[in-house]
Amino acid sequence: MKKPKQTQLNPNWVQLQQLKLKLNGSKASRTFKNSDEDTPKSILGKRKERADDESNDCKINPLVPVNDDSSLTDAVAMDCEMVGVGQGNKSALGRVTLVNKWGNVIYDEFVRPIERVVDFRTKISGIRPRDLRKAKDFWTAQTKVAELIKGRTLVGHALCNDLKALLLSHPKKDIRDTSEYQPFLNRSNGKRALRHLASEHLGVKIQSGEHCPIEDARAAMLLYQRSKKEWEKSIKDQFRFKQKQKKRKQKKKQKNDEYASNANHTIIES
To answer: Which residue intervals make up region (Disordered) (predicted)?
Structure first.
């Protein structure tokens, strides 16, 4: 069988084909090279933008609890919101909130005052008429709060006002009031607002509009927790100082009594 004859290509056609192959090859290599160079740049660019966005927008709020443990702890923080009764200038309890040492809510209830509310003070208290329609009655709330704070360290800001509104008392040795702690006072030993303490020591803004008792209680608790070591040491030092003063007074009294009895004995003998 005869082999088929190979068709002879025109030399010009061969050169043209080779030229096309070279051009296509160089274009493909350029395209591949450009894609390699562009891809990393675009990815890195996106990562950089993402990092910038996170640094600007994702600031951690220290008042957000780090866990969801709502158990009753050895220290609890309390904050109350008031409404106006009587002529409007008399304060009454409208809401009471307690958080544990992690800032998780353990009690938060609107409270219906004994007297008729004439001023809800909504711009500050955040309380509205609808909030008190199904609110807890005062005595129920008072009993529950008394039960929760009994035997525990009570933290808060200007707690005397909250306890007064609740008609409750608490042992002074178990109160940690951020409005009275010496390092939190101003230069003239004056009390400072909680929002100023939160801004300066915690770097957070609170009470810019309607007050949130949960947020305020968390702020007070965090201020206490961050200063706990020094705060508790100062409490112990104060207690020891008072004990020493008490012993000195007792010794002085004993000496005076002994002197008086000796003087009386001398007068009787003479």
So the answer is: 26-56, 238-270
